[in-house]
Each structure stands twice: as C-alpha cells, then as structure tokens.
Amino acid sequence: MPDRAPPHVVIVDDKLEMAEMLSDGLAEHGYSAFAVATGKQALARVESEPVDALVTDLRMPGMDGIELLTAARRAVPDLPVLVMTAYGGMDTAIESIRRGAYHYLTKPFKLDELVVYLGRALDESRVRREARTLRKSLRDGAAKAGIVARSSAMRAALDVIVRVASSDVPVLLTGPTGSGKGMFARYLHAESGRARGPFVTVNCAALPEPLLESELFGHAKGAFTGATTRRSGLFAEAEGGTMFLDEIGEMAPALQAKLLDVLERRVVRPVGSTKETPIDVRIVTATHRDLRRRVAEGLFREDLLYRLDVVPVNVPPLRDRRDDLPELAAELLAKARARHPTSRVERLSRECLLAMLEYPWPGNVRELAHAVERLVLLGRSSEAHFADAALPHVATRDLPSVHFSGPVLPMRELQQRYARWALAELGGNKTRAAERLGIDVKTLGKYLAEDGGD
C-alpha cells in the first residue's frame, strides 16, 4: 500500500469470527480493518468516523445487508460497499448491485479475491473524488476569470482548456462573435506555466496588412516612411508568455505565410531587417469563421490551419448554454450597478429573466452585457423589466431559415455531409453533435461512416 494512511474498512458479519478473520487478513495487506457483528454497529461507525469502504454480509438478523447498504450510502453517498452472500442468496446479491454495491463475493471466497475487489473499489472511489476536486477547481478558477460554466457545453470546453494549459501547443478557439473567446484565451494563459509572463492580444481584423505586420514582427529603423526608430514588435513583447491572435481568419495571405514560418522555426524577423530573433511564445488563436471553408475558398492557408488547429476548443453560443444565463445575468447586473451607483435597478424581475431565457441572443454574451447595461440605465424601479432592454424583435420560436443550392443529392449523402458539417461546427465533439442533431452517438457514427452511395 502507499505511504499515506491505510484505508479504513468496516467488516460486518453476524458470525463475528468470520468478520474478525477477514479483518486480520486485510490488516496483513496494509488495511486498517474493524470487525462488527451487526448492521447497526457498522452503520454507527460509518456515520461517526471516516470510513473508506464497507464489507457486509447480506443475511443478518435485525438490519440486513440491503438495509445497511441503503443507509450507509445515504450517509456517505460515494462509500464503496462490497457484499458477501451464500450461493442461495444470488437474487439478493444482484439486488444489492442495483442499489449501488460495488461487487458481491460468493461464500466461500479467498482473501485474495476480497483484496483485489476492495483495491479496485477504493481506486475508483479515489478517482471520483479527484475528479470532483478537479471540477470544483475548474469552476472556481473559471469564476475568478469571470467565466460562468454551469452548462455542460461550457464545462466541456473548460475541461479541454485545463487539460492543455500546462503544455505549449497552439490552441484554436472557435465560436460566434461575442461568445467569450477572449476570456477563454486569458483563462488558458492564467492556468498555464506562462501565467507570470505577458499576455499580448492582437485583433487581426482591426489593422491593415502593412501595419499589422509591423505591429507583430517589429521593424528596423528606416524600413518604411515614418520608421524613424527600431521597434521590436508584439511577438518580442510576448516573450515568455502568450500571444493571442484574435480573428485569425481575417489575416492576409502574405502574413499567414510569415506566421507559419514563426510557428515552424520559432524565430521572427522584423520588417526591413535581415536579422532573425528566437522567440519563446505560446500562440493562441480565435475566429468566428469556418477556417476549413476559407481554405476551400483560397482565403486561408491549409498548412497554417494544421499548425494552429492542434487543439480546437469550441466556445458555445449563449443559446446553447441557457443554464448559465441566470448567473451570468446576475454577475453582469452587479458590475453594471457598480458602474452606475445612482441607478434604481436592484434586481431582474422574474418576467425579465424568463424573457431572457427565451430570447435567442444572436450577439451572445456581449449582447447580454449591453442589454443588462441598458436595463440598469433605463430601469424605472427596483426591478428591471425586459422591455427596458430595448432589444430588437427576434422570432424566438421560428426555425432559422435554410437555403439550398446546387445539385439534388441522395438522402444518404445529404445525411453524411450534414453530419460532418455539424461535427466540424461543434469542434469535433461527437456527443454535442449528436445532441444537437437529435440522434444518439451510434447513429451519428453510422452517418459519418456511410459513403453516400445506395
């Protein structure tokens, strides 16, 4: 057993000598085991002291094994329970598995069999505890970064971020405008080993090509008109940290080639210079575009996409994370009230929150933030009403319009193409794609595997 405190196991059998024999045997294998003769005694120990596992006989006078199992797991929901039964009690043993027992042992059994299954049960219990701790840490860390993640879609995205944070691989954040890709990039940086280094953001759509090149790579003195001094560039400023290239899909092809060279050789060369400088920068990119479509249209380099798309993370639109909306709205309200302390608005009315849950939010979190700001500024009473948000009228129940063009395709090929498109749109997450398509993962796999022929 490891050097940490030995697992504490309670063993109960109405034949006390049997329980004591098992207890002594487990002690030889590094366990701290305690034998009792009744279900009530076992339950008292479970309720009063830390117990890592329970081993119980099924047929006992008074409180039997099934009753003890139910009561013990009510007191400690994740407690691993192993049951012992004679051959004639198989139906009861199977019932115990239905009620949450980890495994059953048919008497007579060897001590080694108990040791094996007890070890497995404790390992699985430890993994579940660690997973819960990780999820709590994930939620706490995300909350500190201003990210609300109660919905399964957001938790899935954050889980990927946490798993790749410690590495230096490029991460491509996809999702619609206003969904929070910038916050994800900052969270990734904060959780990484580069957290103490700089976090430099560049919006590739905000600057014309010549200026963006100079900003990113720097320039030598006299490289162009107005370049009166040497400039190191933002890649150099991001040394030891993270460079976040937002709206990477808008970058001009010539700059894409230069960025590809940076990714492959880890050096930058300022505009107008012949000298190359090594860099140590993690690159994170984001886009609301379908980059594969832009590759097909000749607007984005395929080799660069492969370099950037090492780990794709899809940031879901607000309409796909309704579970997050109440908490998100409450946080935005608190921030807006802090900016406008004279506002009469103190809270959102129930009508307002229900309307928010129904609204499609085409502008995503950014639109919600602006709507809450208007509520705080325009609200006439302590409770904000949705009408004060002055949002455009959007048909919340209508299906989005779909346009068809091109040749008529066989249904099988159409299913396959649409399934592949949906999978790409959702970042390759088959579970989410199946949910959105209204099918199970197995059926999605069949669609993807079909060749489109008859």
Automatic annotation (TrEMBL):
The modification 4-aspartylphosphate is found at residue 57. InterPro entries: AAA+_ATPase, AAA_lid_NorR, CheY-like_superfamily, Homeodomain-like_sf, HTH_Fis, P-loop_NTPase, Sig_transdc_resp-reg_receiver, Sigma_54_int. The keyword Isomerase does not apply. Residues 8-122 form the Response regulatory domain. Pfam families: AAA_lid_14, HTH_8, Response_reg, Sigma54_activat. Transmembrane segments: none annotated. It comes from the Bacteria. Residues 147-377 form the Sigma-54 factor interaction domain. One of its GO terms (biological process) is regulation of DNA-templated transcription. Keywords: ATP-binding, DNA-binding, Nucleotide-binding, Phosphoprotein, Transcription, Transcription regulation. Coiled coil: none annotated. One of its GO terms (molecular function) is sequence-specific DNA binding. This is Response regulator.
